[in-house]
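Summary of Year 1 activities. Much of the first year was spent building the evaluation harness for sequence design. The harness presents a backbone, in tokenized form, and records the residue chosen at every position. We chose the following record to illustrate the format because it has been used consistently in internal testing since the harness was completed.
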């Protein structure tokens, strides 16, 4: 008998959250306004961003979107999903969108937009900690795979946004001028 119990009592130590810092840069050949709107309207991400399973608005923000909270679910190559909420904390029109993440990821994201010639450069800085115990437990071994997984999802986002914006531009030309591209 130990500690007054006729069986062994197991104790668990909390596993520290693991931190990750990512910087992704996309070059999109499209008007700044179109790129801005596609990123700002996160509920549309599942339409063009492979890996985004869903995005649901939990709370609307002000007229600019500040204060909005969205819940997003992500799935990539590795066999797990992540779900977390994002609260928009700052917007500078056509320049940046800043959000705080909480849930299965905890941290901070910053989208920055700039025009370079005929392209829009989109930079996403993502500083997060994982909160899922199993992810934290295996992080010493799996961290490179988590990093690779993030990079894969971001490349899907860039490819998907380019294709989606090109299709929308072609559809607009067809509607406006009757041009079919044939």
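For this record, the design step produced the sequence shown next.
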């Amino acid at each position: 008998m130990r500690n007054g119990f006729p069986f062994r009592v197991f104790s668990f130590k909390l596993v520290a959250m693991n931190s990750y810092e990512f910087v992704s840069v996309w070059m999109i050949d499209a008007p700044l306004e179109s790129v801005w709107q596609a990123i700002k309207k996160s509920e549309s991400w599942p339409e063009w961003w492979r890996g985004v399973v869903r995005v649901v608005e939990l709370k609307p923000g002000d007229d600019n979107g500040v204060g909005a909270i969205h819940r997003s679910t992500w799935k990539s190559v590795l066999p797990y999903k992540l779900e977390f909420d994002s609260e928009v904390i700052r917007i500078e029109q056509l320049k940046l969108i800043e959000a705080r993440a909480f849930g299965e990821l905890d941290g901070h994201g910053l989208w920055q937009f700039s025009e370079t010639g005929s392209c829009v450069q989109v930079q996403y800085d993502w500083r997060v900690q994982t909160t899922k115990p199993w992810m934290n437990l295996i992080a010493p071994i799996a961290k490179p795979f988590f990093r690779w997984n993030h990079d894969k999802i971001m490349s899907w986002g860039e490819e998907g946004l380019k294709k989606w914006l090109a299709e929308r531009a072609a559809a607009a030309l067809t509607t406006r001028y009757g041009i079919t591209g044939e």
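Helices lie at 32-40, 45-48, 133-177. Quantitative recovery figures across the full test set are reported in Table 2.
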